[in-house]
Fold this sequence. Notes:
The protein is an alpha/beta fold. The protein contains 11 helices and 12 strands. The protein has helices at residues 17-20, 33-49, 60-70, 86-89, 93-105, 125-141, 160-169, 187-194, 215-228, 233-253, 297-305; strands at 23-30, 53-58, 81-85, 112-116, 147-154, 172-175, 178-181, 205-209, 258-265, 268-275, 308-314, 317-325. Strands 3-2-4-5-1-6-7 form a 7-stranded mixed beta sheet, with helices on both faces. Strands 8-9-10-12-11 form a 5-stranded antiparallel beta sheet.
Amino acid sequence: MIDSGSAGMWGGLKGTEAGRSAFVHSALLFRSQQDYLESVVRFVLDGLAADEAVLVAVPDDALALVHDALSGSVGGFTAELRMADIAEVGRNPSRFMATEGCFVDEHPDRRVRIVSQLAWPGRSDDEFVACVEHEALVNDALDGYPVTKLCLYDASRLDDQLLADAGATHPFLWRRGALQRSPEYAPDDALRRCNRPLAAHPGAVTYTVTKSADLSPARSFAVNYAGWVGMSKDGIDDLQLIATELATNSLMYSGGACRLAFWRQDEHLVCEARDTGRFDDPLAGRLDPGPSGPASRGLYLVNAISDLVRTHTTSSGTTIQAYLRFDQSPGPNG
């Protein structure tokens, strides 16, 4: 039985230093399903009772459990409760910040709450790096906004380094039912660890773009390669857009050539862009730039389409790798 009363540990937030802050970014390391459900239900009901809009983004199986646990308890509230499968809205961790930002923008007149489980067990190592990067960057992206955010980590199934990174990227941790400042909080250090070199693939096919006139043949090159490995038409269209936006971004900001590379890696087709520029804004492409921000719209589209985007940048150059899930083209009778 879940105690769904709102006077539990979440009610203690109001009188704390965190409760007076605009953006409250906390992590909960849970070890049982009961702990998970009790914490999420209390967090959600506390928010609805305070007339706060609530977004719950967790894996589909957990989403069903949360929905059942909340059924019968939310009917009397007028604030919005939205539930989403994190495997859809956050498959690419670099895309999830836009989901959060849009939810905040949709409710300009009230505080919002966000529950997320971005680093769910079973993700790849590269995906976990991108999750850590997201949680480090969101501290600046949502700074000053009226948001209370709870990030969930399965302490029984995730490795020790990822759990330590939760403390490094979240200024607040829930421990023994109390909200505490994280003594390990150091998001800049976490970002430096995430800025890992990205190895070139020895079997990649490459095309170098040196001027805008090269973009059209580069798209044709990408189409031919994707068709050769059997990608579907929709996948080919997505790959064309990714390659075009990455190459265009390089031409605009690096001041030099962009080497595009393509290869098949397990269930993904990877498009890589390498140039000699430095990527100075890690938030570029993670939030919807709107009509006044064309400079980052290309990267925003890449994040929106891709299943994973990884970036490594130094003073001598930048590498961006976009992973697109391989969608096999149907046969002639398909």
